[in-house]
Specification:
With about 70 residues, this protein is mainly alpha-helical. The chain is elongated, with a radius of gyration of 13 Å.
Length: about 70
């Protein structure tokens, strides 16, 4: 998740503390809204374990539910 925080900080031109708050807010919202299989994949992605098959599985699951997200 540190890589994501650094990327948000750089692209948004904000401090890493502000980016951390933003990323944690978005991840928290996703955890509340996603169905259970996607929550597990999200945990792997934000935990830095998204490589190979896990990353592709996350893309498949998240891509399949994208139209159903309320935001």
């Amino acid at each position: 998740m540190d890589e994501m925080i650094k990327a948000v900080a750089a692209k948004a031109g904000i401090s890493t503390d502000q980016a951390k708050a933003a990323v944690e807010t978005v991840v928290g919202m996703l955890k509340d809204k996603l169905p259970e299989p996607a929550k597990s994949l999200l945990a792997g992605v934000v935990g830095g374990n998204a490589t190979g098959d896990v990353a592709q599985a996350a893309k498949d699951v998240l891509g399949g539910i994208k139209p159903k997200l309320p935001f």
